Amino acid sequence: MTTTHGNFCTKITRFGVMNNYLVEEADDLTAIDTGMAGSADAILAGAQALGKPIRRVLLTHAHTDHAGSLDELMARLPDAEFLCSGQTARFLAGDMRLDAGQAESKLRGGFVRRQTKAAHTLADGDQVGSLQVIAAPGHAPDQLAFWDTRDGTLYAGDAFQTQGGLAVSGDVRWLFPLPAWATWHKPTALETARKLAALAPSRLAVGHGPVLESPQAELAAGIERAASKFEK
């Protein structure tokens, strides 16, 4: 299923709960995440409906529901470039070591290995088209978020979920508990949630669940709920 939000954001949903996004620029598109294996057809169909080519493919992190179709999609987009964090690039190559200073907590969730190499890697504060790169670890150590500087849309990966109610990564929502179960480090996830909420996004687009418009109240409630659990 494909839905459009605002002027620039198109959400592509598979199996009712797994999202990736196409972000419109003036002449082309940026794809954020590639979904589970087998998602390339849906992403390409979404781009065809928008009438613009995909020129950039970004990953929030290397879990299978976000990076699963990377090789498949890039094989069909010879003119596009693939960009991700340096740690995501290493994870995709099979190097699962944590970076210096990261919490020594067990990696969780299904990480995938893929053959596609990044054209270059991204760091906090970089700009890709209209998107500002924001380091967003917690759900996974390698996670990035992307902030559309034109309209305030925040592409938050799995820093939050909205499926089953807004929750900070690591806070179980029993209607859809998988993101919480796949969270690497809850205190870091809470720190990231507070950082992202401070941006006061106009729109919240996440990996699992509906896009939220004017999400400040939901973000505040979700962070308060997570803090009551994580900071005991």
Model description:
With 232 residues, the chain is an alpha/beta fold. It has one domain: Ribonuclease Z/Hydroxyacylglutathione hydrolase-like (Metallo-beta-lactamase, Chain A). It is built from seven helices and 15 strands. Strands 1-2-3-4-5-6-7 form a seven-stranded mixed β-sheet. The longest helix has 15 residues, at 216-230.
CATH A-level architecture:
4-Layer Sandwich
Tally of discrete structural domains: 1
- Determine the strand fraction and express it as a percent band: 25-35%
* CATH topological fold name: Metallo-beta-lactamase, Chain A
Helix content: 25-40%
Biggest sheet layout? 7 strands, mixed
Average pLDDT over all residues: 97
Please state the overall shape, judged from the principal axes of the Cα atoms: globular
CATH class: Alpha Beta
User: What is the number of strand segments?
Assistant: 15
Structural class assignment: alpha/beta
Radius of gyration: 16 Å
Order of helices and strands: EEEEHEHHEHEEEEEEEHHEEH
End-to-end span in angstroms?
40 Å
Strand order of the main beta sheet, please? 1-2-3-4-5-6-7
Separate helix tally: 7
Fourth-level CATH superfamily: Ribonuclease Z/Hydroxyacylglutathione hydrolase-like
Q: Regions with pLDDT < 50 over 5+ consecutive residues?
A: none
